[in-house]
Amino acid sequence: xxxxxxxxxxxxxxxxxxxxxxxxxxxxxxxxxxxxxxxxxxxxxxxxxxxxxxxxxxxxxxxxxxxxxxxxxxxxxxxxxxxxxxxxxxxxxxxxxxxxxxxxxxxxxxxxxxxxxxxxxxxxxxxxxxxxxxxxxxxxxxxxxxxxxxxxxxxxxxxxxxxxxxxxxxxxxxxxxxxxxxxxxxxxxxxxxxxxxxxxxxxxxxxxxx
Length: 210
Hints:
The chain is of the alpha+beta class. It has one domain. The chain has helices spanning 10-13, 23-34, 62-69, 80-85, 136-145, 153-167, 169-199; strands at residues 3-9, 38-44, 88-90, 95-96, 99-100, 103-105, 110-116, 126-127, 150-151, 204-205, 208-209. The strands form five sheets. Strands 3-7-6 form a three-stranded antiparallel β-sheet, with helices on one face. A two-stranded parallel ribbon has the order 1-2. Strands 4-5 form a two-stranded antiparallel ribbon. Strand 10 (204-205) and strand 11 (208-209) form a beta hairpin.
C-alpha cells in the first residue's frame, strides 16, 4: 500500500458559516505522512449514510440545510431526528414563493437531501461568511452594509477549499518537496539505466546481435 484516500466532509469541517475546523483531519493526515504514506483528500460536499454500504452518517451542515430549505416558504426546516430518519420524502412544496427547491426533486415530488442540486450552484441561498483572507474591518463593513447578503453554493465550496489549502499549507509544501525529490530520483535512475544499456556489450548468437 502506497497511500490512502480521505473524505473531508463539509458537514464536519464547517460547523458554522466560515468557521472551519480541520483539527481532526490534520491529526489523521500527520499520522499517515509519518508512516510514509501518500494522502489524497477529497472535498465531500454531500451527505453520507443514506445509501447501501454506508457505515457512517454525515449530514450536510445544519446551517446550510436550514438556509437552503428556507428558499421554500411552505417547507419547514427538518429536525435532526427527521433528517436522520429520512433521506427522501415527498416535498410539500417543490416550489414556493416563486422559488425552486435547492435539492434534487423528482417528478413525483420526492426530495433527495444528500446534496444541493446543480441548478442551485449559482443561487444565493447560503449565509455569508467572513471573506477568507480579507481585512476583517472591510468584511465587517460589508456585512453591515448588506446584513442579508447570501453566498451561492459555489462560493461556499470555494471558501471551504481555500480554508483547507491554508490549513494544510505545511503538509502541501512537504508533499511537493517529496514529489520533486521522487521525480529527480526517478530521472537519475532512468538516465543511469539508459547509460548502462548503451554500454552493455552485445552477445552474438548464431550471427544475430542480442
